[in-house]
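Design request, tokens follow.
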């Protein structure tokens, strides 16, 4: 049994009381001979489930504005840019997403009148994406709702927010994220 499982006590009893499916999966991992991998499985699975929960909260706050979190990120990147426009490739690079995802988000934002495509003034191969006045209004209203409904109270104690942020920053850095 791994040191993690020794330090957490009797995982089976906790699983039965809490009904936590990740704790149950961890117990099953150990029963099947994968005790050394169980803590990592539990951490990664917990992280993925936490992502789903956080995204659902954010998407709920954004739904009245007619945008998803991915589209919100594009709007805010444009809102924060000095000219209100960026090349498509720069958007993908800064958001760390595949070009297809950028194209999809920009297509939807453009259809809603929140951004427009423009030819790049010095590079015929590149296309600029510019935020419209309507896009700025949506970005500002959506940010106000996200700040109030999600970011100001992420559902964690302040010291936990700081700890999670620090741990995930280290995790991202070690993975070459930045």
């Amino acid at each position: 049994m791994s040191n993690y499982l020794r330090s957490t006590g009797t995982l089976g009893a906790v699983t039965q009381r809490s009904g936590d499916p990740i704790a149950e999966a961890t117990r099953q991992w150990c029963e099947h001979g994968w005790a050394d991998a169980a803590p990592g499985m539990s951490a990664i699975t917990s992280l993925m489930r936490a992502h789903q929960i956080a995204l659902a909260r954010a998407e709920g706050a954004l739904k009245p504005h007619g945008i998803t979190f991915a589209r919100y990120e594009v709007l805010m990147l444009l809102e924060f840019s000095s000219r209100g426009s960026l090349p498509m490739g720069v958007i993908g690079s800064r958001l760390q997403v595949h070009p297809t995802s950028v194209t999809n988000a920009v297509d939807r934002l453009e259809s809603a009148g929140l951004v427009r495509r423009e030819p790049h003034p010095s590079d015929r191969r590149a296309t600029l994406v510019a935020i419209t006045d309507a896009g700025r209004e949506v970005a500002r209203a959506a940010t106000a709702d996200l700040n109030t409904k999600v970011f100001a109270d992420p559902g964690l104690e302040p010291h936990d927010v700081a700890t999670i942020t620090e741990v995930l920053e280290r995790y991202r850095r070690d993975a070459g994220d930045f």
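Comment from the thread starter after seeing the answer: thanks! The beta strands are 85-87, 115-119, 127-131.
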